[in-house]
Amino acid sequence: MLFPTVRFAVFLAIVLPIAWSLAPRPGRPAAPAWRWKLFLVLASYVFYGAWDWRFVPLLMVSTVGNEIAAMGIHLARDRQHRDRWLTGALVGNLGLLAWWKYAGFLTGSADGLLRLLGFDVSLPYPEIVLPVGISFFTFQAISYVIDVHRRTIRPTNLLDVAVYLAFFPQLVAGPIVRASEFLPQLRVGPDPRGIPVGRALRLIGVGLVLKVVVANHLAAELVDPLFATPGQYGGGQTLVGIYAYAVQIYADFAGYTSIAIGVALLLGFEFPQNFNRPYAARSLQDFWRRWHMTLSRWLRDYLYIPLGGNAHGQRRTERNLLLTMLLGGLWHGAAWTFVVWGGLHGVGLVVERRRKASIEAAQAAGPPDATSTTEATRRGDTRRAGKQRDDGAAHLVPPAGGVRPLHPVTAWAVTFHVVCLAWVFFRAPSFDVALTVLAGLGGGSSTVPLSPTVPLLVATVLLVQQIPDGPRARLAARWDALPIPVHVVTFAAILVVLDVFGPDGVAPFIYFQF
Amino acid sequence: MAVRTDPDAPAAAERHSSQRPARTAEQRNRPEQVHQPGSPRRTPPNVAVAVVLVTLVLGALMNGPGLESAATGLSVGRTRDAAMSVAAGVARSGAALGLDRPHQWLTAVRDGDLGARVGTAAELAAAQGSDLEQRGRPQPDGQTSAAIDARSDAPDDGARDVASGEQDDATQEPGRATQEPDNAAREPDNAAQEPGNAAQEPDRTTRSITADAPLEVLLAGDSLMGTVADGYGRRSTDDELVDWDKDVRVSTGLARPDVLNWPLHLQQLLDARDPDVVVLLLGGNDDQSLVGGADGVVHYGQPGWEEEYQERATQLQTIAASQGRTVVWLELPAVRPGKLERARQRMNAAARRAAAGTGALLIDTDAIIAPEGYTVRLRGTQVRADDGVHLTHAGGDLVAEVIDRVVSDRFGLPG
Q1: Taking CB atoms and an 8 Å cutoff, what residues of chain B touch A312?
Q2: Would the CB atoms of B48 and A25 count as touching at under 8 Å?
Q3: Which residue of chain A is at minimal alpha-carbon distance from B36?
């Protein structure tokens, strides 16, 4: 079931009042919380089953298996047994993911390798339909058992785990909510202060516009045709097309999670933020603090730090960074193009780290860089002047002595274009297409007309992202505080805009496939 | 103990557990980063639920046409009937209250500035009574109908000339001409004798094709056409003698003119672009009841379904073939076993019979990407998407190669 559909609107109109009628709330006769939770589970299974009922049992098996593992970890008599239970849970979860998501990729890669080596064989190709959202609920399941193992949380009952893994707002495309964030909310029930309905409607409305208008329009007008037949586009159009994909995937994914966060709010749950102006980033490190934030912290907490983090010297740290990003790339899709995407980010992070270390070493050895401080002061930004070295852009400063720090605009531009370069591999169906697109940047003019709405939308989204957090938060707070009728009429008007300017039918969200 | 926090980690490291300060119970109950700082105004749950429901009702009243369109697109059955009834009621109520005005205004703006969407349900209604019926659909006593009747005895999969192959190939076993892509294209018997066409319409195959007047090729169809058209586009990008265009309409087909009226839509495309060659691939969504037939709905699985489908394929091919255009009809390739696969064989049979009357060239896509039946990988290359229906880029390239060869042969272009 897709969010921007009449079907989902009807689903929500049914689920919302029933869920609140069953929810535990202070000041009312105590109703068993299990009814509320059971209803949320059933509603989520209906939501998930709308795609394919055959995968609902898979979700149930994952739920039961992880609950057994969590209880096993909790009740184990010693560390060794706890570790065994954890290992079993990880093997189970990752095995599930490997089978459903990567079996074809692994077989195909092996097949290609054998052919490259001269063996004319054809390995049997496992034809497996990828269950929607399997990466997301598997990652949440892993976070649950690891947190129990770390004793960050205690295992909870099966019903709570079922709600946690299946909760429909975030089931298929995130955000990836930690057990330690979700389960306490489930335990205490919805916030008794009520629902921030203005904020929820704003989040859903913005998400719908991003997805249905911005993402779909950019995809249809330029991105899809460009990556389908890149040879017919000139250099300028190719560049705009790459920018457009950067904006499209943001609008698509941030739009989805914005709707998810808004719908969860309506049901009384608060989800973590997943995007925070990623294209305002001035370094790759900064980018990953703003893009798909719940995945970033998952990778940090459950992969990077267990690998050793930065505790074992430069080489190990860089290795850990690269491994984390490569696996992060593979998580997005079972194809080598995704691995390259992750690899580019990993290499970029390593380069930034080395440069930052060189600069810090040079600055520790010599007088402070008066130039950067002076420049920041000249701009009137005393706070920035004082913490210049903490700015993400500092990573991009070449280590050679006497080289000025990059201007923030330059740092932004470099970061944005590195990210865009990586997006080409992320979007392209093959390396051939990716390289053709990149080669097209050097092409001449094209006879293919470019809709003026494309650069307009791209520029608008990128400019809006440059508005600092403070003014944005104040604007949002003012908007949320407006009288409820304003929110009602605005949201209804947004639905009109979506219907008129949206495409016929709704394209699936990009991140569903991950 | 070494602290394993790292500011260079993919996300902020200051929250690493070893350095994290103790959190209160309330803090633990909420995410580390809620979506917005501050404490937004909250509404009591009962009121909030009512607000959401009122919002949805208002949105529905303001979107009557959109609701009707969505209901129309549902699968034929009781649910659709009920949804259409409700949507019509909502639309009427919205119109009576004047709440549909914003929708009308924005639609006018859109159609003025961004171009009209053609073939939607609303436009279909507006187009009723047009001359379309006279243009393409075989008439009871008309010439096209007679042509079909004259060929209706032809076997579904009888031996056909192979447009792009050697003469010997024509004697291959019926059904699939051969198992090789070279021989995937077929021309129906007697196509050259199509009554009327040769005498009344220009022969585009003899016109001079130059860089200034390139061959215009239009590839149109449902989502299955997407990667095929893209493959053809990649092949033709550097060919100055060929100018190509595509029109892919996702989730459409011949079964549901209420969703997209393909004959009307194709006619508009032809009027706008005047191609020399029309390549069509449809049927991926047609394993369902046929809406809008002479008797209303011809339910899938009931007698007459295949005949009605053949009639629609004939209508579309006839429109495409007007003014001496070459029509290439791609048969629906084998898909993962299921309902669509069963329907596919009936659709292909109907389309073949239709092509026997209209002179459309047939391309047996099975011979290209499923020579031994449905497969995901062919000779080490993944040709089929994970959904078991659509073609990958590589699969589309294989089909596009055959289209290119057929078209080049037809117009005497260098291969």
Answers
A1: 2
A2: no
A3: A473
User: Does ipTM surpass 0.90 in this model?
Assistant: no
pTM: predicted TM-score of the whole model, two decimal places = 0.74
pLDDT of A348-371, one tens digit each? 999 988 888 777 777 777 655 545
Q: Are A180 and A36 contained in the same domain?
A: yes
Distance from CA of B362 to the nearest CA of A (A): 25
A351 lies in the same domain as A436: yes
Beta bridge partners of residue B220, listed in sequence order: B247, B280
Look at B32 and A288 and tell me if their CB atoms are within 8 Å: no
Do A242 and A384 reside in the same domain of the chain?
A: yes
> Token match 């039946």: residue?
B373
Distance of CA A313 to the CA centre of its chain: 29
pLDDT number for residue B24: 42
CA angle B35, B38, B43 (to 5 degrees): 85
How many domains does chain A fold into?
A: 2
Is the Cβ–Cβ distance between A232 and B237 less than 8 Å?
yes
Contact A189, A23 (CB under 8 A): yes
CA B359 – CA B172 distance, rounded (Å): 20
Domain spanning B143-411: which CATH class is it, in words? alpha beta
Q: Which residues of A touch B250 (CB under 8 A)?
A: 504-505, 507
Is A332 a catalytic site residue? yes
Within this chain, do residues A39 and A180 fall inside the same structural domain, yes or no? yes
| Closest alpha carbon to B186 in B144, B148, B156, B222 | B156
| Least Cα separation, residue A257 to chain B (angstroms) | 11
Higher pLDDT, residue B114 or B300: B300
Tell me which of B1, B6, B23, B84 to substitute to probe the interface with A (most A C-beta atoms closer than 10 Å): B6
From chain A, the residues in CB contact with B371 under 8 A are none
Q: Cα(A19)–Cα(A25) distance, rounded to whole angstroms? A: 12
Q: How far apart are CA B16 and CA B5, in angstroms?
A: 6
Residues of B in contact with A296 (CB under 8 A): 10-11
CA distance A325 to chain B (A): 8
- Collapsing DSSP to helix, strand or coil, A221 comes out as helix
What would the pLDDT profile of A170-219 be if each residue is shown by its tens digit? 887 778 998 888 998 888 888 777 889 999 999 999 999 999 889 988 98
Residues of chain A short of pLDDT 50, as ranges, are: 370, 372-374, 376-400, 514
Mutate to test the interface with B, among A499, A501, A512 (most CBs of B within 10 A): A499
Is position A508 within any domain? no
Q: What is the pLDDT of residues B77-113, one digit of tens each?
A: 888 888 889 999 999 999 889 898 888 888 888 776 4
Question: Whole-angstrom Cα distance, residue B357 to residue B325?
Answer: 15
Task: Give yes or no: residues A184 and A205 share one domain.
Answer: no
Mean pLDDT, chain B, integer: 73
Are residue A115 and residue A205 in the same domain, yes or no? Answer: no
Shared-domain flag, residues A174 and A306: no
Any idea what the Cα angle at residue B137 is, between residues B136 and B140, rounded to 5°?
130
Which residues span the domain enclosing A141?
6-189
CA B20 – CA B3 distance, rounded (Å)? 12
Burial class (CB in 10 A: 0-12, 13-18, 19+), A124: exposed
Residue in A with minimal Cα distance to B120? A504
Running DSSP on this structure, what letter comes out for residue B240? T
